[in-house]
Amino acid sequence: MRPGRKSGRGSDGNIARKPFFFSRTGDIFSNVFERLQSAVGGNASVAGDGACRRRKIFALLVLLVVCCYGGWHLAVFGIHKVEGYLATVRVLPVEHLEISGNSIVPAQKIISAAQIVEHKTTMLGVSEKEIRQRLKAVPWIRSVEVKRSWPASVVIEVEEEEPLALLVKEGEKGQEFYYIDHERRVFLPIVSGGWLDFPVITGLFAVEQDNIRERVLAEALVFLRKVKRNNPYLPLQSISEIHCTEKGELVVYMVEYPFPVFLGKGNIGQKYHRLIQVLKSLYKSRHGRKKIETVSYIQMEYLKDKVLVATAQQEDNR
User: Fold this and answer.
1) What's the pLDDT at 303?
2) pLDDT in tens, 12-59
3) Which of 91, 93, 109, 274 is the most exposed place for a label (fewest CB within 10 A)?
4) Of residues 177, 183, 184, 135, the one with CA closest to residue 160
C-alpha cells in the first residue's frame, strides 16, 4: 500500500459501507434529477406543451427542495420520522383521481376505501401498497393497480369479480347461495338484495366422490361458458338451473319451458351444439311454439349420435 493512502477496510477487516441515510438520500436525489432531465428534454411543439413542461419543472423543483430538507431530517432523525414528515408536507396535493374498470362498485366507494382526498392528500403521502390492500378488502374487487402520475394525479384501475352462476351449498342455516366464476372460484355469499340474475347450480354437494364432484362442476361451467355466447336459440338468460345428479350427470332446466334437458356426462361442447340444432329445429317447425309446449324432455344421450325429443303424446302412448 502506498504511504498516506487510506484503506477501504474498517478495523474489523470488512469493506466500509456508506451510512444508510446517505444511500437512501442519494437514491431520492437521483430520481429527482432524472425527472428534471426528462421534463426539460425535447422541444415543445406548441405553446401549451411548453407551459405544461414549466409547471412540471416547478413542481419537481419544489420536490427537490422537500427532498433536501427531508435528507437532512433523514440524517438526524431516521427514516421512519422522515417518511411521516413527507406525508404531511402540504405541497404537491393530489388534484385528480382517475378510477377505471368499475361497473359494480361505485366510484365513491373506491375513493372512500382508498382514503384519498383531492387537494388535501399529498402525492408524497400516497402509499400505493396500502391503497391496494384497502381496496382488495372491498367486496367485488378482485384485483387493483395503483400508480402516481406526477405531478398531481393518482390512477386506480380495478378488476371486478365476474360471476357465471350461483352455487347452492348446504350451510348451518340450510341452503346458502354463493357466486362462482368461470375458474370455479366461489368468492362471495349472496346477501339480501344481492345480484341474482344468474343460472343456479344445484345438487353438487350430494355427489359423494370428490373427483366426480369436481368433474361435474367443471362440465357445468363449460356448458355455461358456451351458453354465454348468447346464441339466439339458447341465450344465457334462458337457463334457469343446472342440476347435478348423484351419479354425476347434468340436467338443464330453462326459464320458459318446464321440460328438462338431460345432458348426461362428457362431450359437453358437442352436446351444446346439438342442443342448439334441436331447439332451432323446434322453433322453425310449422307449429313451433305449440310443438315446443308438447315436449316432455330432451335426452342428449339416447343412442350414439342420437338425440331423443320426447313429447307428451309419446309418453301417453307408452
Assistant:
1) 76
2) 444 444 444 444 444 544 554 555 455 444 444 444 566 666 666 766
3) 91
4) 135
User: Within 153-262, where are the H helices?
Assistant: 210-227
The answer to whether residue 59 is domain-embedded is: yes
The answer for residues whose C-beta is within 8 angstroms of residue 193's C-beta and 6 or more apart is: none
pLDDT tens digits, residue range 85-117? 555 556 688 999 999 999 999 999 999 999 999
In a shared domain, residues 309 and 173: yes
DSSP 89: -
Clarify whether residues 210 and 180 are in a common domain. Answer: yes
In a domain, 15, yes or no: no
User: Hey, is 196 helix, strand or coil?
Assistant: coil
* Residues 63, 198 within the same domain: no
Higher pLDDT, 225 or 83: 225
At residue 44, the pLDDT reads: 42
The cell for 90 is 402540504
Residue 132 has pLDDT above 60, yes or no: yes
Residue 10 lies in a domain: no
170 and 51 housed in the same domain: no
Q: Which domain holds residue 298?
A: 165-317
**Last residue in a domain, options 72, 88, 104:** 88
Q: Which of 273, 264, 246, 257 is nearest to 301 (CA)?
A: 264
Number of domains in the chain: 3
Calculate the CA dihedral of residues 229, 233, 235, 239 and round it to 10 degrees.
-130
Please name the helix (run of DSSP H) or strand (run of DSSP E) that holds residue 39, with its range, or none: helix 20-40
210 within a domain of the structure (yes/no): yes
Rama region for 13: left / alpha / beta (φ>0; ψ in -120 to 50; rest): left
- Give the up-direction half-sphere exposure of residue 76: CA atoms within 13 A in the CB hemisphere: 7
What local confidence, expressed as pLDDT, does residue 262 receive?
A: 97
Cβ contacts of 214 within 8 Å, gap of 6 or more: none
